[in-house]
Design brief:
The protein is α/β, with parallel strands linked by helices. The chain contains 9 helices and 14 strands.
C-alpha cells in the first residue's frame, strides 16, 4: 500500500491514503443498501423529512457590481428563475481576483448573511472569480466556514460535512449551513445558455444515460468502488453504463459523466441533456482559470449544467470528491443539482461547486413543489 506523498510538484502525483481501501469497501456496502444514510450523515436539528427540492424563494443570488457581466447575468438569472427581489444581494469586488484573503472573505460573507432571512437555504454567487479563499474553495469556505488548519497541509482530512448523504431538504434548518454554488461567466452568452439549460431541465425528462469510466489513471480512479452497477434506474428512464476507457466519445443523452483524469478528451463529441452533472477527479479542476489541468469550466462549456473541482492539492482522498452513487441517487430522487452535489461530498472544504443550482429534472412535478419523488434505488 502506498503511503501519502508529501512532496509537491507542478502536476501533483495522487497517492491513495493507507486507510482508503478498507473504508471504501465498507462505505460501498452501505451505499448499496436502499435508503442508507451513509457515513458522516447528520440528523441535524430538524426531522429530516423530505420537503421538496429547493425553490426560487429558498435561493439568494449574489451579484458583483464591480463586474458588469455579473450584473447582466445575475439579473437574467433572477428573471428566469423568479428569485424574489429580497433575495438579491449586491456586493462590490473590484479587479476580479482569483482569490480573496481571509479578512476580505469574512467581510463579504458577513455582508451577504446580514441580508438573508431564515428561509434562504442556499446562495448562488454570479461570477467566475474570486473562486478561492486561501486553500479553501469559496463555496466550501462560505458553507462550512474557513478551514485554516487545512491550509497547513492540504492533503490532510477535511472537515466532515454533516450534509453528506443526508436526508432532508432544508440544510440551514437541519444542519446549520447554507449551501453555495458559483455561476461562472466565460461569456454572457454562455452563462445565459447555462441558466437556460437549468430551467429547461424542469420541463422535460428524456431518456438519459449515466456514464462511469474506469480509467487507466489508477491514482485518479479511486472512486471506482462507488460507481453504480450497470442497469436501469428512475423507472427505466436512466441507463447506467460502466466503461473501461480514458474518455467517452460520440455519446448522446448524457445525464451524468464521471471519471478520474487530469485532462478529458472528446468532450466535443458528447451531447448532454439539460440538467447534466459531470466532473473529473484531479487536483486542480476547481482552479477555474488555471492551466496545469483541465478546468471544471470545460464541462459547462461542453453542455453540462453543474460540475465540481478542487482548488488546491487534495491528494486523492475520495471523500474530497463527489461520490458517484450518492450523487446519482439523490439527483434521481428529486434533489436539485446543488443539493445532490453537496450531499455527495464528505469533505468539501477544497471543493468548488459550479453551475445552475436549481436544475432538478427528476422532481415529481405532478405532486406539487412541496413533495419529492418516491425513493429511487440505484443499482
Amino acid at each position: 500500500m502506498m503511503q501519502r506523498q508529501r512532496r509537491r510538484s507542478r502536476f501533483p502525483a495522487f497517492v491513495r491514503p493507507p486507510f482508503a481501501s478498507a473504508f471504501a469497501f465498507a462505505c460501498a456496502f452501505a451505499l448499496a443498501l436502499p435508503g442508507a444514510a451513509g457515513a458522516g450523515a447528520g440528523t441535524g436539528t430538524g426531522t429530516g423529512a423530505p420537503d421538496g427540492p429547493l425553490e426560487a424563494r429558498h435561493l439568494a443570488v449574489v451579484i458583483n457590481e464591480g463586474d458588469p457581466d455579473s450584473v447582466t447575468v445575475g439579473e437574467y438569472y433572477q428573471r428566469r428563475r423568479g428569485i424574489p427581489a429580497a433575495n438579491v444581494v449586491r456586493v462590490r469586488i473590484p479587479g476580479r481576483p482569483r482569490a480573496l484573503d481571509v479578512v476580505r472573505f469574512r467581510l463579504l460573507k458577513a455582508h451577504i448573511d446580514s441580508r438573508l432571512g431564515p428561509e434562504v437555504q442556499a446562495v448562488l454567487m454570479v461570477w467566475t472569480a474570486p473562486y478561492r479563499v486561501g486553500c479553501n474553495a469559496i463555496t466550501g469556505a462560505y458553507t462550512l466556514g474557513y478551514d485554516a488548519a487545512l491550509c497547513r497541509d492540504t492533503c490532510r482530512a477535511g472537515q466532515p460535512s454533516s450534509y453528506f448523504n443526508a436526508p432532508g431538504r432544508r440544510p440551514l434548518l437541519e444542519h446549520g449551513m447554507r449551501l453555495s454554488m458559483l455561476l461562472p461567466i466565460e461569456s454572457v452568452e454562455a452563462a445565459r445558455a447555462l441558466v437556460d439549460r437549468g430551467v429547461a431541465s424542469g420541463f422535460h425528462t428524456p431518456a438519459a444515460h449515466a456514464w462511469y469510466l474506469d480509467t487507466l489513471d489508477a491514482a485518479r480512479n479511486v472512486r471506482a468502488p462507488f460507481f453504480p452497477r450497470p442497469g436501469q434506474a428512475a423507472g427505466g428512464r436512466v441507463t447506467i453504463h460502466r466503461l473501461r476507457a480514458d474518455a467517452l466519445h460520440n455519446a448522446s443523452g448524457v445525464l451524468v459523466y464521471q471519471l478520474g483524469k487530469a485532462q478529458v478528451d472528446g468532450l466535443d463529441t458528447v451531447r448532454f441533456v439539460p440538467g447534466a452533472l459531470a466532473d473529473h477527479l484531479t487536483s486542480h479542476g476547481g482552479d477555474l482559470l488555471g492551466t496545469t489541468q483541465m478546468s471544471s469550466l470545460r464541462w459547462l462549456a461542453a453542455g453540462a449544467t453543474a460540475s465540481y473541482g478542487t482548488v488546491s492539492e487534495p491528494c486523492n482522498h475520495w471523500q474530497k470528491f463527489p461520490n458517484p452513487s450518492v450523487l446519482l441517487r439523490h439527483y434521481l430522487n428529486g434533489d436539485s443539482a446543488i443539493e445532490a452535489y453537496w450531499k455527495s461530498v464528505a469533505w468539501p472544504a477544497q471543493g468548488l461547486f459550479i453551475g445552475e443550482p436549481l436544475a432538478a429534472p427528476y422532481q415529481d412535478r405532478s405532486r406539487g413543489p412541496s413533495r419529492g419523488n418516491p425513493r429511487t434505488p440505484v443499482p
